[in-house]
Amino acid sequence: MNSRLESLLTAKPRGQKIAMLTAYDYPTARLLDEAGVDALLVGDSLGMVVLGYPDTTLVTMDDMIHHTQAVVRGVQRAPVIADLPIHSYDTPEQAVANARRLVEAGADAVKLEGGVSHAPQIAAITADGIPVVGHIGMLPQSVREEGGYKIKGKTPEAAQQLLDDALAVQAAGAIAVVMELVKHDVARDLTAALRIPTIGIGSGPECDGQVLVIHDLAGLFPWFTPKFAQPLAAAGSTIRDAAAQYVAQVHGGGK
Ligand code: KIV
């Protein structure tokens, strides 16, 4: 196993919470690595917050490779996990071929969406020696079929399906699982049931770690902030203000 992943893999038994953030470019990756994040995710959320698409479903393997390479150039310490985009892992064979491409781009692990339905893909990539992070709960690549970003696990049947998904992902060999928009008490129970760490997003505080889109943390996408995210900076306003000052300086005949 890649040594950069070591502290991530031992965090749960050590009782150490995992702080993960997304990054899509060199300077952000370098800043977040210097800040001490435990892992960086090159998420296909880049479709929205970097490329201006309405959702993640237009992101391609070429996009993911391009941004993974940029992130890897900025990192000295933190492991880099890269998303397999929609339709890049429809079959186990395709999943392995595309996971290899992300590893060639410098990723330490790959992430894919789906539980029981995608256990064969997780098992095939793992058998190829590539660490996999699962992703269950709300699956952004299915947002069009789902009709929006909705909380998961609201009924006993839905909670049982999530447990089945989580156990299938673990049994297939995943090293961790992202749980997105899972009802908080269900996320707590899944966290207790699993040996591998759970990384929550909008799933409450009782996961083994948390992941956020950096734009939501830094206030870098001020036009939309998910309800569960609390920005700790206003980088969007800072950039807009600096640009407005620059425009005023230049229009005023300054340097
Ligand atoms: O693409 C992404 O940024 C993600 C996170 C929301 C977990 O998958």
Q: List ligands, each type once.
A: 3-methyl-2-oxobutanoic acid
Low-confidence regions: none
Main β-sheet: number of strands, strand sense, barrel status?
A: 8 strands, parallel, barrel
Mean pLDDT: 97
Strand content: 5-15%
Helix and strand topology:
Elements: H1 6-14, E1 18-22, H2 26-35, E2 39-42, H3 46-49, H4 61-74, E3 80-83, H5 92-104, E4 109-111, H6 119-127, E5 132-137, H7 143-146, H8 156-171, E6 176-180, H9 184-193, E7 198-201, E8 209-212, H10 214-218, H11 235-251
Parallel strand pairs: 1-2, 1-8, 2-3, 3-4, 4-5, 5-6, 6-7, 7-8
Helix pairs in contact: 2-4, 5-6
The structure holds 3-methyl-2-oxobutanoic acid.
3-methyl-2-oxobutanoic acid binds next to strand 6.
Describe the structure.
- The protein is 44% helix and 14% strand.
- It has 255 residues and is α/β, with parallel strands linked by helices.
- Helix 2 (26-35) crosses helix 4 (61-74).
- It starts with 5 loop residues before the first helix and ends with a helix.
- The protein binds 3-methyl-2-oxobutanoic acid.
- 3-methyl-2-oxobutanoic acid binds at residues 22, 41, 43-45, 83, 178, 180, 201, 211, 213.
- 3-methyl-2-oxobutanoic acid (KIV) binds next to strand 6.
Give a nutshell description of this structure.
This protein is 44% helix and 14% strand. It is an alpha/beta fold and 255 residues long. Bound molecules: 3-methyl-2-oxobutanoic acid (KIV).
Features:
8-stranded parallel beta barrel, 8 strands, 255 residues, binds 3-methyl-2-oxobutanoic acid, alpha/beta
